[in-house]
Each structure stands twice: as C-alpha cells, then as structure tokens.
UniProtKB/TrEMBL annotation:
UniProt-listed GO biological process terms: peptide transport; transmembrane transport
Signal peptide: none
UniProt protein name: ABC transporter ATP-binding protein
Keyword ATP-binding carried by entry: yes
Keyword Membrane: yes
Taxonomic source organism: Achromobacter aloeverae
A UniProt-annotated Pfam family: ABC_tran
Amino acid sequence: MPPRQDTTIQPEPQPKPPRDDAAPLLAIRDLSIALPAGGDRPYAVRDISYDIRAGEILCIVGESGSGKSMSANAIMGLLPNYLRPERGQILFRGQDLLAQPEGVLRGMRGKDMAMIFQEPLSALNPLMTVGEQIAEVMRVHDAYPGPAREQRVLEMLAFVGLPDPATLFHTYPFRLSGGQRQRVMIAMALALEPALLIADEPTTALDVTTQAQILSLIARIQKEKGMGVMFVTHDFGVVAEIAHRVVVMEKGLVVEQGPAEQVLNRPVHPYTRRLIAAVPHRRAREQADAAREEVVLEVKNLRKTYVTGHGWFGKKRVVRAVDDVSFRVRRGETLGIVGESGSGKSTIGKCLLKLVGIDGGQMLFDGQDIAPLSESAFRPLRKDIQMIFQDPFASLNPRQTVGRIISDGPIAAGKTREQAHARARELLELVRLDASAFDRYPNQFSGGQRQRIGIARALALDPKVLVADESVSALDVSVQAQVLELLRDLQQRLRIGLVFITHDLRVAAQICNAVLVMHQGKVVEYGSPSQIFDAPQHGYTQRLIGAVPGRGWDSTRVNTGGAQA
C-alpha cells in the first residue's frame, strides 16, 4: 500500500514585517479611557501604548473585558457617549485623532482607516442590497462618480473572492452565508483603499474552512496593499497564523507585547502564559473505560429533509440536512460531531431533542425508539435528554433569578419547591458558582458564568444524555478551558453520555472519545480522535484539519511555567 500523501494546506510564507525604526502608521501613547463611576474598575483601558506600522499585522489578544475592542473603537472615534478618553494620544500619521472634531473623523472613516466588525449580519443594513451598501461608502466620500462607482463595486466583490458579482450586487445580506457576508464587509472596508484596517474578531463565529479563507484573504490584501492591520482576537491559532507582532491585554492594561514568535513561544507575563496554557489541545490519552459502559443512545439511519421554495413560481428545493446517519453514545462517553456550517450537525441535535420531526430512521434511548413517540408520550423522557445551548444569555430568562431558572424544571417534574431549591444550590456549587448566585439575575454574570448556569439547569433533571450545541464557541480561551474541564469532570463523575457539537476541531480533539465528521448531511468519517486527527482518510476531513489556523504552532511545547487556566 503506497504511503498516504500529505494533503495538509500549507500556509503561505508571511511577508517580513517593516523595520522597527520605520515611522509608525498609528501610535497609541498612554491612552486611558474612564468608565462611569460605580463599576468594578475605573478605567476601560489605562495608560496603554503600542504602534502599528504600514505593512504589518498587529494582533491584540486578551479575554472579554480586557479593553482590546475598546481601544479599536477609540481609534475609529466610535466610543459610546458615556465613555471618554481621559488622557493620552492616538496619533495617525502624526495627527492626534483625539483632538479632531467629529467632521474630520467622519471624513477619515472608510477613506484613511476602516473597520471590519465581528457580526456582519448586525453591521449590514438588511434593507439595502450588497452593492448599494458598498457603493454608499464611495458616495459618502464622493469617490468614483457615475458609472465608475458600480464598476468599482463589482471589482471589489471579485477582489474578495465572491462569485458572480453582477448577481450579488442586487442580493440582500440575509441570502448570503456568514463567510460571504464577512467578505462583503471586507469589500466595504477596502473600497477606498485605507491605510489602516481594523478587524474586530472577524472570524470568531465562522467554521474552520471559512475562517481559513478569510484569514488568507486579509493576509493577501495586507500584503498587496501594504496596509497596517490591527487584528483583535482571542484565538491564539489565528495569532500564530497571521501576526507579525502581538499585544496582550488584561483588564485594560497592556501586559506584554513583542514579535509574534517571541510572545507565542517565549511568553514572559504570567497572564500570557495562562492564556497559552488554556489553548485546547489533544489529551495525553483517550479514555478507555467508556468502552465498557452500556450504550445509552443509538441512532440508526437517521434522515431529516427540508423542502424550500423560491417565490410563487420557483421550483422547490430539497435539502437533505441529515442523510442516513448512524452512531452510538455510551454512558460516560463524549461523541463529537464536527463539520462546517450547513453540514447537518446542529440538525442532529434538534432531532435528538425532538425539537424537529424526522423523516426516517431510529433514535434508541435506553433501547426504546423515541422517534415515533408523540409529544405527550415523550414528555416523561424529556428530562433524560437535555441540551446546553450555544448562547446562554439568549436561552436564560432575564426576568427570572438563577435559582428559579434551575428549579422550574424539577418542580414541573414533581419535586417540591424545597427539594428543587436545595438541588439548585447543590448544582451551583457543582458548577463552581458562589451560593449567592441563587438570588441574582443572568445579566449580573459573565458569559462563562452564564454558561455554567446553563449547565446547572441541564443537570437539574439528572439527565442520562446531554447535547451541547456549540456551547463554548463564543467563550474566551481561558473561560472555554474552564467550561470544558467542568463538562469533562461532570460527565465522568455522573456517567452522562455527551453529544458535543462543534466546529472547533481543537476543542473536539481535547474533549471527545469519538468523533463524527459531517459533510452535506452525511457521515464521511467516524472514529477515535487519534484516527481522525492523525490519520484522516476522507478528503473532506483532511481539508478540515488542514484549515485549522496556526496548526504549525504547538502550544503544548511552550514553557508556561505550569500556568493554569
């Protein structure tokens, strides 16, 4: 048998960053932004200083609340009214932006400096076509008048790799995928060829292949145009992929900065070491004891089809979201389901919870096929299969206390109020939240703490199976590490079967005993993490693994001094 060819996508060599003695395009000097009185800390950012040079990519990393996005908004003059720079300078080509009136800043936005936002669907106007929105940038600055404007829009759509620009010009944002919408945002930002591009978490919500395409696109544009790029992220894989230099922020302070190679491989500050120690990586050994446990959930030949139409006279389109999928989950085992957006992985989760009907197949829970059960017949079993949702803030009732959120399920299942409240307090302790959380509301907690509340709610009914749908994708790397460790600990102690749906292959490699790879509704590969990640057989799996950002950088080889996340 001939040796398997290495199909891993090799990153393009990075251009050399500009010399350190080159004049900075942007210089932030001792910038402090005060927060309203009464908060946990007086400053959003305090006495921060760093430079961005033309022709370099500077990555700003840190957890939520570190001040990285705040400094980006300050550069663009987009701070909310209740925040104000108290002191310091933001020098763009030697000109202090903090001293400029709003009219001057408005003239610079889009033309001299531009920003790509994290969520393009929120940033794009749903009532305007893609072409109209890109053209508006040019109209505001009176650039490319007449027919040249539409031609420039078509050029930009093609430049960012979007298909059929002429058709896309007249398309509304909601008809595009997440990756396509992000490309439209990039086209808008680059329409007038600004000298400075600020990208604020532009790939966080994207699957791994789309993320790789956007990172490659930004790196190519930066190289071709010679721009300075400020890339805000919490993903160290992204940093390893594209950064020339890195600035690390913690609680509004710059705690470390330097060349990317130095910060990634020889971090000095304890906070940087903790962040790198929290990067998901393969466990040293896979659990073997789960193989001896009984099967709690078995799916056989599951099928789910959606039929969509395109207008009154349009042909109906049949989408096989889940096409003949089979797998098993044992007690104490974690099955990872990975794939791109649209692969069918979240639809499987909805089917398991019977949130959508299925078109064929079996779902055997403790040997009983729950697929044909009516809602009333399934209701007694619903407590045994619980879900942890992707967005804990959207899934928690903001008008209810945490204690009530956790207690309502057990009370509805027959427990007394006293029993349910006692169980809720036990679960809060189990997920490592303070007892005072019982009487507080969801908006009083961080994202990671809210996810812990979601886990406690899911555990309140003592389920045998947990379905976690992208439950850590929006969390900072250190918070993500804590939640993953918590899930693994609870799952092993309580012997719960866990179905872990994710687009993050690093996370899947860390937490799963078995991995199911989905593509266009079908299972293309199914095996242990070592088999899937070290010796992938299917071309699609190979492409997924090849697209993981920073795959040439191994965080486990970095000396973090025993730092804990």
